[in-house]
Structure to design on (449 residues):
């Protein structure tokens, strides 16, 4: 409400529950003044463009295109200026009429309240006199409504108001049917621009949720899909803000980088799991082949020892031969090598390096153990899986680092929004970093008027 706006009555009893003729004529007049100012600025710019279009001293291949574009834009500017000038007269008339309707409604309300005071005084007088012998007419029916006249007057005012509002709306719509038309995309960008602060605050909340859930997704199956959906929604909303001129491409880049933590973690876990399976399979095949060769070389000895054992009675001699046969088999098994089939135990530091995922850290250690034991058979598969995993882990660490840096040094759109709307404190931030981010990779200027 502008400083000169007339305050409307709040209590509309006994006629209505709320103001039947809402609106602020002074706000409309302020908007009219703004429109007049914009129209004048547009005409001034149109003159400048006309000067460029008529310039004869310009030389070069670009001159013809520059003149054509200048002429077209100059025409559009004049058309928009004319739109503002045509519309503001209807708005001015409507603001005056709305003010008259409100004044008439206020008068009806005052008369109704005066009548209400009279009725209350009569009731009080009757109560004091104790006169209950004369029956009083019921006021429940329409015929006995003491405010019926005022209600009818108010209904007439609101009907006239609605009629005149429809009239001016039709006039304004007719006036804006010019060559400059807003497409659905222009309307969408306008809506985004009008609600930019709230959208940014919502994106800020999504960013924190994605950061926290990004770590949890490494340990909780299925959560990664939710986080990925949040990341896609964040980027989509940020692109809308870029289109409306309320965000920069730098913001989009940081939104994407924040999602790298999730994408990198998911990719790293997937590559590690598939690589571990291939490595274990290759190692197991190598062990089976080694055992076959080792046992084949001592098959004759084992067979002879077995036959000899069957001929000996139970006792120390037979037990000694059995122990020798088992020791031979165990020696062959140990020399061939054991296959690590599951995640190995790791230190807390190693777990931290692997983004807090103890299972992935143990699987990475398992890869290296199988490679060391079966280098010829499992080395290639282990190296391929480990390199892919390291690449994904590097992406995840990069995304996390940039995300943490941005949240630490940058402004919080959420706290900025709450500060503006509720007076809360803003999150501490680095002004130089925020200025750099806000002024880097700005979107192209929007030429829509």
């Amino acid at each position: 409400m502008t400083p000169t706006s007339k305050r409307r009555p709040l209590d509309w009893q006994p006629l209505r529950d709320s103001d039947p003729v809402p609106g602020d004529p002074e706000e409309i007049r302020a908007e009219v003044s703004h429109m007049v100012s914009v129209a004048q600025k547009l005409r001034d710019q149109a003159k400048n463009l006309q000067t460029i279009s008529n310039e004869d001293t310009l030389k070069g291949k670009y001159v013809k295109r520059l003149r054509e574009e200048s002429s077209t834009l100059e025409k559009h500017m004049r058309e928009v200026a004319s739109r503002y000038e045509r519309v503001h007269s209807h708005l001015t008339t409507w603001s005056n009429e709305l003010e008259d309707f409100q004044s008439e409604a206020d008068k009806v309300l005052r008369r109704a309240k005066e009548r209400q005071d009279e009725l209350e005084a009569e009731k009080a007088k009757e109560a004091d006199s104790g006169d209950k012998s004369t029956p009083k007419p019921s006021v429940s029916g329409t015929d006995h409504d003491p405010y019926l006249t005022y209600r009818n007057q108010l209904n007439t005012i609101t009907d006239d108001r609605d009629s005149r509002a429809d009239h001016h709306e039709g006039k304004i719509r007719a006036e804006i049917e010019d060559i400059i038309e807003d497409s659905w995309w222009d309307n969408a960008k306008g809506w985004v621009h009008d609600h930019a602060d709230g959208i940014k605050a919502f994106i800020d909340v999504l960013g924190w949720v994605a950061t926290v859930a990004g770590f949890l997704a490494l340990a909780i199956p299925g959560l990664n899909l939710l986080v990925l959906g949040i990341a896609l929604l964040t980027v989509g909303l940020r692109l809308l803000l870029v289109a409306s001129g309320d965000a920069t491409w730098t913001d989009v880049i940081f939104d994407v980088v924040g999602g790298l933590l999730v994408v990198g973690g998911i990719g790293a876990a997937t590559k590690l799991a598939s690589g571990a399976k291939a490595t274990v399979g290759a190692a197991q095949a190598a062990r089976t082949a080694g055992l076959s060769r080792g046992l084949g070389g001592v098959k004759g000895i084992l067979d002879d020892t077995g036959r000899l054992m069957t001929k000996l009675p139970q006792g120390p001699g037979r037990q000694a031969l059995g122990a020798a046969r088992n020791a031979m088999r165990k020696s062959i098994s140990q020399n061939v090598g054991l296959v690590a089939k599951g995640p190995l135990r790791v230190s807390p530091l190693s777990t931290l390096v692997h983004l807090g995922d103890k299972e992935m850290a143990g699987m990475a250690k398992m890869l290296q153990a199988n490679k060391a034991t079966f280098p010829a058979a499992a080395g290639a598969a282990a190296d391929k899986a480990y390199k892919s995993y390291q690449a994904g882990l590097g992406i995840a660490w990069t995304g996390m680092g940039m995300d943490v840096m941005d949240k630490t040094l940058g402004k919080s759109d959420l706290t900025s929004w709450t500060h503006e709307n509720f007076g809360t404190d803003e999150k501490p931030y680095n002004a130089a970093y925020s200025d750099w981010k806000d002024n880097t990779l700005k979107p192209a200027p929007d030429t829509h008027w």
About this structure: Confidence is low (pLDDT under 50) at residues 137-142, 445-449. Residues 62-129 form the longest helix (68 residues). The radius of gyration is 42 Å.
